[in-house]
Specification:
It is found in: Mitochondrion. One of its GO terms (cellular component) is mitochondrial small ribosomal subunit. This is Small ribosomal subunit protein mS26. The chain has a two-stranded antiparallel ribbon. The chain is rod-shaped. The chain contains two helices and two strands. The termini are far apart. The longest helix has 58 residues. By secondary structure, it is mainly alpha-helical.
């Protein structure tokens, strides 16, 4: 009977040790997942901030009712001809004359 008590105590100690290790492993995994999620969120926020800055920069060139007259004058002063042909390599082959 004493041997059985010793064996039960030994098994209980092993089980408690295994459960403690599993709990530590689970805590470690949760921490890793939280850190990974935080890094992912930080990268996402940086990307969105970069995108916002790019859009703000592009917005400086938008045509608004306030700058419409100036943009029309600018286009009339500097006409561009988009009537041309290109070859397969993207080089301009033939261009028409502006009238």
């Amino acid at each position: 009977m004493a041997w059985n008590e010793e064996e039960n105590a030994r098994q209980r100690a092993r089980r408690e040790e295994r459960l403690r290790k599993e709990e530590e492993e689970q805590k470690r995994r949760k921490l890793e997942i939280a850190e990974k999620q935080a890094r992912k969120m930080e990268a996402f926020l940086k990307e969105k901030e970069k995108e916002v800055l790019q859009l703000q920069e592009e917005a400086k060139n938008f045509i608004t009712p306030e700058n419409l007259e100036a943009r029309i004058e600018e286009c009339l002063d500097n006409p561009r001809n988009y009537n041309f042909a290109i070859d397969k390599d993207g080089r301009i082959v033939k261009r028409t004359v502006l009238s």
